[in-house]
Specification:
The complex is a heterodimer of chains A (226) and B (435). Chain A has 226 residues and is of the alpha+beta class. In chain A, 33% of the residues lie in helices and 8% in strands. Chain A has two domains: 76 residues, Arc Repressor Mutant, subunit A, CATH 1.10.10; 88 residues, Glutaredoxin. In chain A, helix 6 packs parallel to helix 7. Classes of the chains: A alpha+beta (226), B alpha/beta (435). At the A-B interface, helix 2, helix 4 and helix 5 of A face helix 5, strand 3, strand 5, strand 6 and strand 9 of B.
């Protein structure tokens, strides 16, 4: 028997395609959405003001679309149609345009997402150091916690603390399997996550960049080096 | 002795605030530069022969001199979208010494007559963005940014712009599109950004480390700075070393020191009992080098001659406990995820290369697949708007060439695991391109 016969069947989504969400794009029976009517699109006052501030920073206000989507996602929890419509209303853009932008970037969620983001880096350096195993442990630890979303992520720019993760934006590492449970506990308790492994407290590796007054974490194995 | 210019006592508490930064002479270069004729600043940078620290290694002074002279809407964009796997040097600079970057931006914009600058920072760097935001506000309050800086007549508005997670936005024209509020698709070049960039105006795009070096150059003098390092690679370089080394992290080195001194001397080499199997000298986009290349001096020209590149200065060390296949699969997975999809050779090439390595693992491949992988890499290189595809093709082509025997053994072993026909019993395949 050749391996070809035992190949798993191609995985398909409910709609029959191998491509997720291909059927979500348009409803051809409706006219295309235009720039939302301010009279019909209530926008929270604070969100409106912050987006308008952002727009004023750029020679072309359209530049504010990514920062504005960040704000809307923060406010609504995800880039919901409502959130996109509000940004579109303030920025005088179409929802389709903003959706096309949001779908390009990894940090915008176009479907509801859990409150806490745990991005586990699974790129080359971290995976050499065991990130794939940590990712499994993290998924297992977060199982049953609906408000914690675990995602494998591409290089987060902290290979010095690999394997590492970004927990709600806080970089922590190097991680071992016990840390997965700690991350879940810290998040549930509302504590700072793995404070003794946070990147912000870590000294630079270069010995001549370091000072005696540094009260944070010494890079592992650094003691006694020239 | 290595020179230490950027990282000198960078851990000093409070260095991210102006009082501590000024106590060590910070913003002194800016004061000096604002009293110089703008052309003299660009001349100093040219004399320093500082090469861009972002990856391409283009001379900064030369790039700045491509900008048209005179009053017009020109822009400076600082590329802080540090996303090349293995690279994390700008993170440390921005987090610990943000004012050095701001000072470099003020000096560069004064030299080029630019009044609007942006720092495009990757969305994942939230701590660094907060620190930079606070530093910009502090500099504005001190009169180092804004209208008529210190009475010089130079005005500068500096805006911090957060991205949202896309590797392609580190490519300069993809970054510009993203900064204009669009999807980050790279543009056709020419026109290069120096002629037609952000909002179609002349734009200078420089890396964080490059701009942070400018105050040092003004302080030392360009000619003096050029004496550090080697002839083609002047100065010091921040390098990020990661992977199978005992002391990973950021180091500042003088360009031209032996690579062995970095990997074994500074970083302690692989764990005891392990040997270096391969290393990426400049991020995951650079062709891999072997243990026998460890004695190469670490500078732009030597690494280029050795068939690789210095890139962003990110050294990833892989020891002999890992297989070449594992490395190749991780690298291809990344690039196929990050390809923006605009150019067919990259979109399809990265995806299919990843699938072909998966075929090796599932025992469906024959050695001919390696020829096909190699030919796919050949057809990506140079055929796209930007170098994302090349960034996969270069390391993969080098891994296939240098570890061919190991990959073939891997193919054979995987076939055995999958109960596929042994290779010896298959009819002789016709090599690719032999028709």
């Amino acid at each position: 028997m050749s391996s070809l016969d035992r190949r798993p069947p191609v995985r398909r989504y409910e709609h029959g395609s191998r491509v997720p969400g291909w059927d979500e794009a348009v409803d051809l029976t409706k006219p295309p959405a235009t720039v939302p009517d301010p009279a019909l699109t209530p926008v929270p006052q604070e969100l409106r003001e912050r987006i308008e501030q952002l727009m004023a920073q750029y020679p072309n206000p359209k530049s504010a679309s990514i920062p504005a989507l960040h704000l809307a996602q923060e406010h609504h929890g995800w880039c919901s149609p409502e959130a996109i419509a509000q940004v579109a209303c303030v920025m005088r853009l179409t929802p389709a345009y903003l959706t096309s932008v949001a779908s390009f970037y990894d940090m915008f969620a176009l479907t509801p997402k859990p409150k806490h983001d745990v991005y586990v880096c699974t790129n080359i350096t971290c995976s050499l150091l065991g990130a794939d195993e940590f990712y499994e442990h993290m998924c297992a630890a977060a199982h049953g916690h609906a408000d914690i979303g675990v995602r494998g992520f591409e290089c987060l720019g902290a290979c010095d603390i690999g394997p590492m993760a970004s927990v709600n934006g806080e970089y922590v590492g190097p991680l071992n399997e016990d840390d997965a449970q700690r991350i879940v506990e810290d998040l549930e308790a509302g504590r700072p996550v793995l404070e003794h492994k946070q990147l912000r407290h870590r000294a630079v590796a270069d010995p001549r960049g370091r000072v005696a007054e540094w009260s944070g974490i010494d890079p592992v194995g650094q003691e006694g080096s020239a | 002795m290595n020179q230490h210019l950027l990282f000198d006592r960078i851990d000093e508490p409070g260095l991210n605030t102006i009082p501590v930064y000024e106590k060590r002479g910070g913003y002194g270069a800016m004061r000096r530069a604002l009293a110089m004729p703008p052309a003299a600043i660009i001349e100093e940078i040219k004399q320093s022969s500082l090469r861009g620290r972002g990856g391409a290694g283009f001379q900064m002074g030369q790039k700045a001199s491509f900008l048209p002279q005179g009053e017009m809407a020109k822009y400076l964009v600082c590329n802080a979208d540090e996303s090349e796997p293995g690279t994390f040097k700008d993170r440390e600079l921005m987090q610990k010494c943000p004012h050095m970057l701001i000072e470099g931006i003020v000096i560069t914009t004064f030299g080029t007559g630019i009044h609007h600058a942006f720092i495009y920072i990757r969305g994942e760097y939230q701590l660094q963005a907060q620190i930079l935001e606070a530093a910009i506000a502090e500099a504005e309050a001190a009169g180092y940014l804004g209208e008529n800086i210190l009475g010089s007549g130079h005005s500068l508005k500096l805006v911090l712009h957060r991205g949202a997670g896309a590797y392609i936005c580190g490519e300069e024209t993809g970054l510009l599109d993203s900064l204009e509020g669009k999807r980050g698709n790279p543009r056709l070049k020419p026109p290069f950004p120096a002629i037609e960039g952000l909002y179609a105006g002349p734009t200078l795009v420089n890396n964080v480390e490059t701009l942070s070096t400018v105050p040092t150059i003004i302080n030392m003098g360009g000619a003096e700075y050029a004496k550090i390092g080697t002839e083609g690679s002047a100065g010091t370089k921040l390098i990020s070393v990661s992977g199978d080394v005992q002391r990973p992290g950021n180091y500042e080195i003088e360009l031209g020191i032996p690579s062995r001194e970095i990997i074994y001397g500074l970083c302690g080499g692989p764990r005891p009992g392990r040997e270096v199997k391969m290393w990426f000298p400049g991020g995951s986009s650079s062709p891999v080098l072997l243990a026998e290349d460890l004695d190469l001096p670490y500078d732009f020209d030597t690494l280029a001659k050795a068939g690789s590149m210095l890139g962003s200065g990110a050294i990833i060390v892989v020891d002999d406990s890992h297989s070449a296949l594992e490395v190749a699969r991780k690298v291809t997975k990344f690039y196929s995820h990050e390809s923006c999809g605009k150019c067919v050779p990259c979109r399809e090439g990265t995806n299919w290369t990843h699938k072909m390595f998966a075929r090796i693992e599932s025992g469906e491949a024959t050695p001919m697949d390696l020829d096909i992988v190699a030919s796919v890499q050949n057809q990506i290189m140079g055929n796209c708007l930007c170098v994302l595809g090349d960034a996969m093709a270069m390391p993969i082509a080098s891994i296939v060439a240098k570890f061919r025997a190991e990959l073939e053994a891997e193919i054979e072993a995987a076939r055995e695991r999958a109960n596929a026909l042994p290779l010896a019993t298959l009819p002789q395949a016709i090599p690719v391109g032999a028709h």
